[in-house]
Amino acid sequence: MKTTIKTIGKFSNKEVTIGAWLANKRSSGKIAFLQLRDGTGFIQGVVVKAEVGEELFQKAKSLTQESSLYVSGIVREDERAPSGFELTVTSIDIIHQAEGYPITPKEHGTEFLMDHRHLWLRSKRQHAVMKIRNEIIRATYEFFNDNGFVKVDPPILTGSAPEGTSELFATNYFDEEAYLSQSGQLYMEAAAMALGRVFSFGPTFRAEKSKTRRHLIEFWMIEPEMAFVQFEENLEIQEQFVSFIVKSVLANCQLELRVLGRDLDKLAKVQTPFPRITYDEAILFLTNNGFNDIKWGDDFGAPHETAIAKHYDQPVFITHYPTQLKPFYMQPDANREEVVLCADLIAPEGYGEIIGGSERIHHYELLRKNIEKHQLSNEAYQWYLQLRQYGSVPHSGFGLGLERTVAWIAGVEHVRETIPFPRLLNRLYP
Fold first, then answer.
1. 290 neighbors 303 (Cβ within 8 angstroms)
2. pLDDT at 165 over 70
3. Is residue 354 part of a domain?
4. What are the tens digits of pLDDT across the range 392-416?
5. Whole domain around residue 371: which residue ranges?
6. Residue 73 placed within a domain
């Protein structure tokens, strides 16, 4: 019976065959232990010399790291095994004998591992991170599909930028200039006026010269936009979404979280509603906790966000930022026009902002004035302005950065481990 490691528990005490790679091995004079992986999981294969004979035992001992094989054996329950099962090997068919695999069980430097990212992905730790990433993606589609959202795909090549062009990659688009998208938001607003509630899930690009553990040049964003939804309801949807994906990972990735040594109690504390503080309250908190140089109108950096997050044991919203700090499309507070109806969601444990969102301006004249104030092209944004001319309604949206969210939920320190092939300031290979 051919099966996979993930489903091997269905065949307890039966003989099965799996296609696998040898992740590692150790042996004594009478028993060889093979650490096998097949993409769905890891399992130990036990080769007992007295049961299989000299020829098969020597074949097992001669296997090299990352050789590919077909392995047959009897599935045995074993409480000590992470998956609860191991395989008593009865036969081995070598597909390809690997030689000189560069990533050995010893310690390697980060740059070496990044140069070999195409192979590093095979490790147990990276496998766990990618499985958690996949679960977050799966749960994202489930959440939005179950809540009446329609998936819409905005363009990656754009003629304008939602937040200015200073951090965009420009490219020649025949006889005009185009940019790699830093956000699909503006297009999603158009889609929301047609379909009500929509979301996109795709790659975005920021030409930001940052080397921090929170930044990537290319990353994936989940961007919902919702017609007839105002500021408070927008926050409620955000916290419901984040709570849902955390619960999904806890329910479906227990093994992977244990591999990574994640503190599950901290994730279990992620319950709605999330705490909220205003920008004003955040400034006061920071000045009372040693940040004497920060003043109203300053943006928050990583140390500020970390200090605020440490005060809570779950994600916290910081709301009502100064208008001057935020993009041109955000709706001002009707009672206080120097701040906008926006919020950043800060993850616990120092992982920083994972969501930025706001109510959008829906009055034509106010948006037109903001476009002029920010010295943006009226011509480039004419289509965006027209959304406010034909049946404009209050609407809101947000963007969640997938990689930062994976890093937080998985407990991984650097976002470079949360995407299969990271693009960093100094890295375009492999």
1. no
2. no
3. yes
4. 999 999 999 999 999 999 999 999 9
5. 117-417
6. yes
